[in-house]
């Protein structure tokens, strides 16, 4: 950033004071050398202000400063990183999620970094947080989950548009979705986890609804995303009739076996584990592996690490299938736990389409 031209009296005064500074340095040498000589490493530059006017960046190597008339500031040119702390944001479809970001940057112009912004780190962090907030408010939850890399690249361009004028360039932005605090409301943005789970539950129940619940469910309007109280749901009356010989979850997965195919595996490409707590208190594990071949389904743990783990009690599963318990209420109350990548959980829609 060039300085404004000086008038000849100012130049004269500047030259005279600089000469006196050099003279004082020579007279007091070598004692003054301990204070006037500075070592600048390769990864730094020194910005020197002589009588308040900025000079060309100094370094690397040895830099001579005039006593009393020179001041300096070191600028680190190495790549640095900071994190945008997780904050609560609302997506376009009404979901509430906790999102943060990791940002890497470096300074490419040390003069601009000193002259334009007082606190470069704080200004860059605020710019990244504002850009992240604006970008996520325009997108539904499903797009945020499935296109994090694309959103990160867009944030990189938007942040650089601002920070390049400060002599700083952002190298990488990585968006991090910490947690989904509230599922999305009904909107044209597309199906969500709640609707997918309910449709799968109703379809799997199919011909076994009568044997599980003792009769066909009464027709009613489609389930909605409204918040309901699930603290005291109606308990299914299982004591008046004999329990089914085959566990409910195992029967559902067995019914899924004929529909597995290589096309379904290529479309989903994920492994699911279902942990069902039986009335006796024991936990049974089931898996649906759609990663290789035609896919596999069965009892026990999958061979690899599952992408999504679903946990719930068998009584809650039966209540879910009988529409006595809403998936959203079960999820929000903690009775239905979904661990893993939410985008992978939403791919259960492909399983539902294969069954139709």
Cross-sheet strand order for the largest sheet:
11-10-9-12-13
Counting DSSP E segments of at least 2 residues, the number of strands comes to 13
What string gives the helices and strands in order? HHEEEEEEEHHHHEHHHHEEEEHHEHH
Which residue ranges are poorly predicted, with pLDDT under 50 across at least 5 consecutive positions? 187-196, 201-244
- Number of helix segments? 14
What overall form do the CA principal axes indicate?
rod-shaped
Q: Alpha-carbon distance between the termini?
A: 68 Å
Note the main sheet. 5 strands, mixed
Indicate the structural class.
alpha+beta
* Whole-number mean pLDDT: 76
Helix content: 25-40%
User: β content, as a range?
Assistant: 25-35%
Task: Work out the radius of gyration.
Answer: 32 Å
What does this structure look like?
The protein is an alpha+beta fold and 356 residues long. The chain has 14 helices and 13 strands. The chain has helices at residues 8-27, 33-36, 110-115, 120-137, 141-146, 148-163, 193-205, 209-213, 248-256, 262-268, 314-321, 327-333, 342-346, 348-355; strands spanning 37-40, 44-50, 53-54, 61-64, 70-76, 80-90, 96-107, 168-182, 270-277, 283-290, 296-299, 308-313, 337-340. The strands form 4 sheets. A 5-stranded mixed beta sheet has the order 11-10-9-12-13. Strands 3-2-5 form a 3-stranded antiparallel beta sheet. Strands 6-7-8 form a 3-stranded antiparallel beta sheet. α4 crosses α6 and α7 (193-205) packs parallel to α14.
């Amino acid at each position: 950033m060039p300085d404004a031209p000086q008038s000849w009296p100012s130049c004269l005064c500047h030259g005279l004071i600089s000469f006196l500074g050099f003279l004082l340095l020579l007279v007091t040498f070598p004692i003054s050398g301990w204070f006037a000589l500075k070592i600048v490493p390769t990864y730094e530059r020194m910005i020197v202000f002589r009588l308040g006017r900025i000079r060309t960046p100094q370094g690397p190597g040895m830099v001579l400063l005039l006593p009393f008339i020179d001041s300096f500031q070191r600028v680190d040119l190495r790549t640095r990183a900071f994190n945008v702390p997780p904050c609560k944001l609302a997506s376009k479809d009404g979901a509430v999620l906790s999102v943060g970001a990791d940002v890497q940057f470096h300074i490419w112009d040390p003069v601009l970094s000193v002259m334009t912004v007082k606190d470069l780190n704080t200004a860059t962090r605020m710019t990244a947080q504002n850009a992240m907030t604006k970008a996520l408010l325009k997108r539904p939850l499903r797009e945020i989950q499935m296109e994090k890399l694309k959103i990160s690249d867009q944030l990189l361009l938007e942040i650089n548009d601002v920070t390049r004028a400060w002599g700083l360039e952002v190298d990488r932005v990585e968006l991090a979705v910490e947690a989904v605090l509230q599922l999305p409301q009904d909107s044209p943005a597309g199906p969500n986890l709640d609707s997918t789970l309910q449709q799968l539950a109703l379809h799997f129940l199919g011909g076994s609804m009568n044997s599980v619940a003792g009769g066909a469910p009464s027709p009613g309007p489609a389930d909605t995303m409204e918040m309901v109280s699930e603290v005291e749901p109606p308990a299914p009356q299982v004591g008046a009739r004999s329990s089914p010989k085959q566990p409910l979850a195992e029967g559902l997965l067995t019914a899924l076996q004929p529909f597995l195919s290589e096309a379904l595996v290529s479309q989903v490409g994920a492994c699911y584990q279902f942990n069902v707590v039986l009335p006796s208190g024991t936990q049974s594990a089931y898996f649906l592996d759609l990663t290789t071949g035609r896919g596999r389904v069965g009892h026990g743990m999958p061979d690899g690490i599952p992408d999504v783990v679903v946990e719930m009690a068998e009584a809650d599963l039966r209540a879910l299938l009988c529409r006595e318990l809403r998936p959203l209420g079960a999820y929000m109350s903690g009775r239905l736990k979904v661990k893993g990548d939410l985008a992978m959980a939403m791919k259960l829609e492909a399983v539902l389409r294969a069954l139709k």
